[in-house]
Amino acid sequence: MTQTGKSDFSQGSLSSNILRLAGPMTLALLVNTLYSIVDRIYIGHMAEGGKLALTGIGLAAPILMVISAFQSLCSTGGSPLFSIARGERNEERAARIMGNAYTLLLGFGVLLTAAGYLFKEPILWRTGASADTFAYANDYLSIYLAGTVFVLTGVGMNPYINAQGFGKTGMYTVLIGAVVNILLDPLFIFAFHWGVKGAALATVISQMVSAVWVFRFLTGKTALIRLRLGSMKLDGSVVKRMLGLGVAGFVMSFTNSAVSFVYNNSLARLGNDTYVAVMTIINSLRELSFMPVSGVTEGGKPVLGFNYGAKLYDRCKKCIRIMTFMVAGYCFVMWLTLMLVPGFYVRLFNSDPELLTVGIYGVRHYYAMFFFMTFQMVGQNVFTALGLAKRAVFFSLLRKFIILLPLILLMPGITGLGADGVFWAEPVSQIIGGTACYTTMFFTVYRRLGKTQRL
Question: With contact defined as beta carbons under 8 Å apart, do 378 and 323 qualify?
Fold first, then answer.
């Protein structure tokens, strides 16, 4: 197997290389959000109990984010190492990294399925479930957890397709699953009257289809580096390096779960089920608004990692600049639309008057400083792409765990706004965390590339 010009990121225009991967990735990630967003839109518009069902799905979110954290552990931890190995022309090591990632994802899938069924009920009550919303959350999770292995292997192995230069194939992974989900949702929810259970079943089936697609491609003749049984035997040094680097993505997803848990708990305690429903909408919009950012940064990471492995440091610096400008431009446009028409986004999910009033306030204040996420996301992903695990982990923890979590608890009292004050925590954390992350990346990575043997 040899690397083609198409997948040799040391050649050609950097912006073209990034866009060639980022374009399909962005579309794929946007489509992937439809797994959860379409579920919530359909559920929110159920004739009976739509708002309560929407709240119930939001209460399940922290558990789903924990599953995502373990997927991220192997994808964000292994795919940069995979790209660096390819840049070094070490295909044997690249194959071993990919095979070990698949084995870990299978193991995590089994363990998380068992743990989910054991602990979902007490977690839901502690998250802020009420007597009216618990049944919806529990019904959804009871079915969703059955597809955990498919979630992990389908989403977790897709970056290894993208890292080989097959951006369109990676896009098809989520596109196929999303289309299946979109078609099955109305059938199961409304035609069969299965409600949230139908939404969960549609999601499980669609994720299974995506997982099969990924497996068939990575074991097929088209892949430059194939997934083989021999490479799936766990190698201690590979696993240690992968998990060490993947801790950054894991912490980011796990802290997302913790933040979601505290948000829901605080809003249920200070407000009511409507506030939790609004947070469900905000989380859906967060997934939607962050996907293009993730597409650009995920598209840039294989290019950055490849050129770093090839010791082409000037190209690395240019890659960082391009990623920054792309993300900044998008964040400004998205911020503007959220400030101007927040009601449009809220109505996508439910038109209840109380929900609309609280939702417009929540969206505007939660996203008030969205532009600063440019610096958090670019800085974070540069650290990850270059294998700087400790720095990536630190800045994952800094914004979410050290800054945001305390602010969620403190801002209602500081602002004197009660439940409304909870929404102010996010913009403050974005300013502080984003500025700190990018500034550190600039001085400790960008300015030192090519001037020292170690970063």
Answer: yes
Which residues of the chain fall below pLDDT 70?
1-7, 28-29, 32, 35, 248, 453-454
Question: How far is CA 93 from its chain centroid?
Answer: 27
At position 129, the amino acid (one-letter code) is A
Which letter, b or e, does each residue of 435-446 get, where b requires 16 or more Cβ atoms within 10 Å of its Cβ? ebbbebbbeebb
The amino acid that residue 255 corresponds to is T
CB-count burial class (<10 Å; 0-12, 13-18, 19+) for 32: buried
Query: pTM for the complete prediction?
Result: 0.81
Please give the single-letter amino acid code of residue 10.
S
Output the six-digit token pair for 444.
Answer: 């400790």
Cα 87 from Cα 94, distance rounded (Å): 10
Crossing angle, helix 273-309 and helix 353-366, to 10 degrees? 30
How far is 13 from 180, CA to CA, in rounded Å? 36
Listed as own residue / partner, the contacts of 422-427 with beta carbons closer than 8 Å and 24 or more positions apart are 422/263, 422/266, 422/267, 422/270, 422/275, 423/282, 423/361, 423/362, 423/365, 423/366, 424/365, 426/365, 426/366, 426/367, 426/369, 427/365, 427/366, 427/367, 427/368, 427/369, 427/370
The C-alpha atoms of residue 143 and residue 120 are separated, in whole angstroms, by 12
Which parts of 231-304 are beta strand (E)? none
Instruction: Fill in the DSSP letter of residue 216.
Output: H
- Residues 271, 40, 359, 372: is their CA dihedral positive or negative? positive
Predicted local confidence at residue 28, as pLDDT:
65
- Scan for tokens 């909408």, then name that residue: 281
CB 308 within 8 A of CB 384: no
Q: Do the beta carbons of residue 280 and residue 58 sit within 8 Å?
A: yes
